[in-house]
Batch of 4 targets.
Target 1
Amino acid sequence: MPISDTAGVPSCDGALLTDLYELTMLQAYFERGMNGLAVFELFVRTLPPQRNFLVAAGLEQAIGYLTALHLRDDERDWLHRSGRFTPAFIASLADLHFTGDVLAMPEGTVCFPNEPLLQIAAPLREAQLVESRLLNLLHYQTLVASKAARCVQAAADKPVIDFGLRRAHGAEAALLSARASYLAGFAGTATVSANVSFGIPLFGTMAHSFIQVHDDELDAFEAFARAQANNTLLIDTYDTEAAASKVVALAHRLRTDGIEIRGVRIDSGDLGEHARRVRAILDAGGLRQTQIFASGNLDEYRLEALQQQGAPIDGYGVGTHVGTSADAPYLDCVYKLQEYAGRARRKRSEHKATWPGRKQVYRYVDESGRLLHDVLTLATDQQDGVALLSPVIQAGQRIQPPVPLDQARVYCKAQIEALPAALRAMNGTRPYAVTVAEPLRALTREVDRSTMPATAANR
């Protein structure tokens, strides 16, 4: 019998939301009595094309997952029924919970390849088991926040609203996408549950179906305007400019009842050209305060083009391209062992080698606060830059209250504003400098000497 909630939806909050190999490794560790202190770090190897930076996101959900980790009775029953695991191993998981320490970059931090977003030091079985879910949580929100930040930059000072629910890859993705995009600077979301869960401001207009179920477009506009004080009318169902003229006529009639038409939305066609024509119609009709909102498969490149055209658009709705990060739908995000039982470890696989040991990232800025470069080094190599990794969990307990999302959003805005202008551009540029410090290079050589076969070491 599968594990699911009462609605038949698979559970997303259990210890078994993991890859099978995490569990098979845990049984092998158990049989060999291996549960020493392990240090893992989560980082992104490379940037996607045209990207110049990332925005770290998802830490709050990662903390919630770690501090609540345990094996439920139904999950233990599944382990027995699967026939893959020994009774002794399953019994050993009865007291499973996270007891380790976590250091992390604050949400909203601008970051670059090979810089740890999160570092875990915990008994091996705990540190290994959580790999897949941590990657799942941090990868996705970092991916979306990084894309959303580009849209915010492209839109300049115009508000951008998340319209991503209907094209999101599942309910959790829709909620976390709304959260990550708001963190990165979106003004709000159309997803109601994102307001319920995270307090994100809500925005909404109407669908074409609302117009179509009415026999007359003007009647539809009036019905909606009277029903919603904060109204925005969708005007491109039939003829965009003709609808704008109807809005003008309606607005003068509604004013006698104290009702104002706040805005109109255009969702198709040449958005820039339609916006110019609609703006002229509205202004000529005395509706200079009525705003124009645009949507329809927008991304940072189309936003930038509309801004460069000087299109008279006051705000944008962006969904599919951010929620799926359509042009770069994944990051090369990994979770790798750095130390076990007091010894530094590293992977030497071709094109996938890692730097060993517990690390820290130091950031250097100029007198105006503009980013200059980062240094990746060992945690023991204290430098005079700003340390980006700080403790968030000690001995399994979070040590600070959750950072309010609005506060993280302000921090993220400051981080992005501190980037050199070239890094905020929509196209790729010269990579930001992340220097690997000599103590870390020296440890790497030492680890290689100690783990390399004797024949290779003597070459």
Note: The chain is about 40% helix and 15% strand.
Target 2
Amino acid sequence: MPMPMPLPAPYDHHHQGHHHANWTAGRYHYGPMIPPPATPYIEHQKAVTIRNDVNLKKESLRVERDSENPGKFLVAFTFDATVAGSITIIFFAKEGENCKLTPTKESILPPVIVHFEQGLGQNFIQPSGTGIAFSMFEEAELLQDVDVYPLAIKADACPANLTDADGEPVPGSTNSQITQAVFDKDKGEYKVKVLKQILWVNGMRYELQEIYGIGNSVESDFDGNDPGKECVICLSEPRDTTVLPCRHMCMCSGCAKVLRFQTNRCPICRQPVERLLEIKVNNGNEEESN
């Protein structure tokens, strides 16, 4: 059985530079030191402001019984509009190129178009007689959310200065918000469950995402006495940076710039961080993107 070789002394003038040993925590390591794994690079971006002229408040979206047509239900919701436009209700809609929605059961449920004027907090309810009779469809059809959405609502905003002589929108000028939903059965009653909200602006499609923690920042000016508004790391600066993809708005931009070189985990949920998104919301000024 071979005898183990004795370890060299931690510092030897006669052999220095020949055995290449490194002294670390009382142990010898031959060869070069292995550096710790590098923290993955995390991209830090600033948010781009996109004008949204009409917004359907998704928490208000519901169906109500049509009192004049037993067995039928009407789509209802609240919305804000800074310009005039139109709302289109489409049942069993398939989304195609350029956010075009095609009704797949148009023969029995044609799309319903209702025009609206500028105004905040407007209440919408589908015209009586145009609603959906759930009994006509299989439950699986009403719950499906692949390719065809049981309910889609397209809100088109059309500023007056972008209409032609007949009052029709100039092609490519209309910005839209699309809400895609399914019907979810709860205690025997069908309710609306929103899956996606999409903005179609200047030929670009944006899918809207909730940001957790942004409500504290936008409700009023930053107040250092409110524990819900400050950065979770420095506990002094207001939150303005969101972690993606988990969407926690929990840091100030200064701490975020330091964090991205130290860890790739969200301070709130510990999920891996792919990007950091800086959103200036407190002063009301639009933030220019780099």
Note: The chain has three helices and 17 strands.
Target 3
Amino acid sequence: MTLEWSRSALPADLDDAVLAGRVAVRGEVVPVIVRGGVVHSAFDAASTSADLFDLDDPASAAGDAICDVDALGAEGSGAEVEFRSPIDLQCVKAAGVTFAVSAIERVIEERARGDSSAAAALRGELEAKVGGGIRSVKPGSEEAARLKTALIEAGLWSQYLEVAIGPDAEVFTKAPILSTIGWGGEIGIRSDSHWNNPEPEVVIIVDSRGRPVGATLGNDVNLRDFEGRSALLLGKAKDNNASCSLGPFVRLFGHGFTMDDVRAAELDLVIEGTDGYRLDGHSSMREISRDPEDLVRQTLSEHQYPDGFALFLGTLFAPVQDRDEPGRGFTHKVGDVVTIRSDALGTLSNTVVTSKDAAPWTYGVRALMRDLAARRTTVLA
């Protein structure tokens, strides 16, 4: 299903925002800067988005105008200028269990062993016993350590509670470089998963020097049955073909947009199925347990990222609304349209397919290097 693009999917204050990303112009992918609703090539200054974000002032890389934002289309739409994921060579990292609600849901998955029918009975019990404590403590604090001791003594401890309130955040690799999906693309769910959901998140873009340079929206698709059976299945639960989307663009910091705007971001989620089903959800960054800058710091601890990285910050959203059978909660169906909206960052929309049926990931680092070596000085000539 090809989604219809509209400039209303960009930040509400588009005229004041400076955006960065990637588009395909007649098949040639170029980094771009968006100012005042006009898409400008940045290829003369930066051959990749990783290069673009490494500039001291990425906004200054705006070159020749390519088109107005109204002329953009989803990948495969046939538009002359098509969206691509706004990142390329950056590592894609994700922080998990950064909200109290998500911590409780991960414990439910663990105790239910990935069986969605057992979730409802566990939810009320766990919320009553641990929910208030998790919400009230700062991760890594002495109070959190005392809560951990109490929960262990009560037989309620979990590896998920460790990363929810302990000193160390969960940070994992979500997807290989060049594998992420942009606005309007098909997002993949494993064909053998029967309990899964989208995860609407703010994503911080960090350059090779460790500087946060901007933020975008992301969908960190989650397979609750796989991870619930064993946390050691996290790789299968998180990293599959087309299982990670970003976009539509990265909003750059320093142009009326700051990390405080990320801390205050409100995300709305709508899932619309071909069966007439609709789910509305919400995630508020004000309720995150760990500060975004601390998550960036922990990602950088004893590690280097010479091409920068994208960091998913986690989500408050945990769907418990039944879709089919009472007590079985929510799970995706093929054809679902997932729309994530933030006034400051815009709208990210994708259509759900199975990872087997999504377009195969064939464009990797070697292909990019060959293309860059063969290209002319500018794609606009």
Note: The chain has two domains: 7-96+169-374, 100-165.
Target 4
Amino acid sequence: MKALVFEGTGRTAWREVPDPAIVDAGDAIVRVDAVTLCGTDLHIVKGDVPEVEPGRVLGHEAVGTVVETGGDVRTVRPGDRVLVSCVSSCGRCAPCRERRYGQCRGGGGWVLGHLIDGTQAEYVRVPFADLSVHPVPSGVDSFDAVLLADIFPTAYEVGVLNGAVRPGDTVVVVGAGPIGLAAILTARLHSPGLIVATDLAESRLQAARRLGADATVAAGEGPEQLVADLTDGLGADVVMEAVGVPESFEACVRMVRPGGHVANIGVHGKPAALHLEELWSKDVTLTTGLVDTFSTPMLLRLVVAGRLPTAGLVTHRFALGQMEEAYDVFGRAAETGAIKVALGDPRHTAVQAAG
């Protein structure tokens, strides 16, 4: 089969690799019908995730069709259309029993495209299939469903829930990429009073306004002053970091009010300063986290009910074999206007013209 292979810092290739096979009785082999790229994939290619070794097939988000299952799999069978979660769960270890699936100690957690071969391929082996894939209702488009593999549960769990968004809160989202936009959409489920988004790219600020941000400001045009003006100098109740660079994290800490929450979502490749000499007396709660995906079934139900709009997040569609072109477009998002890039096998999923 063909797959997108990491070949070292700055290098990938769409090339032939061996087909995946059942290794453990809980595995499923899934034919990839729709797949998407993640900012974390860009971090890997840049060398920010050193545990990803050359030769690894990248990707941790997909919708596909089960083609084979191990003897212990009970919840899905060949022919089922499923969402492949970005996090795998053994279901037995102490973290999994607390629904902290991202911290699985039984061989799961974030393994796809990280510690084992991932989803940016024609086929993928999914471990612990009973808990790591979700049947997709027939009325849900594959390109909508694939957004629930990672960005929506990540934004909701690591941003909205960790940030403890409450009705009436002032919420600031720093970074209006896919995760930040999903944070805006899922924060709205909790009825905040005001949502402010900031980003470097005007195209992403336009998307933020379209998806529900009440105010937007370019990163270089005084977001901290705007937040101060909107809150009578107090600061925001919740600030979410959705970029993953020191400057954005440090800006989040400056914008939060005493007693507020800073929810870090971004993947950081470099140290960021934590000014405890300023924070120690402010009762600020700072959270970090890897998504656990316990919210995925609920989010799927909201999509089916029409309560969680996903249209508009996928800005570019490609055929599966155009993986390297898709990476180029996604990696130059400020120039291309890309928000979320999705790819599909034209034999199984309708794919529009590239770009």
Note: Residues 351-355 have pLDDT under 50 and may be disordered.
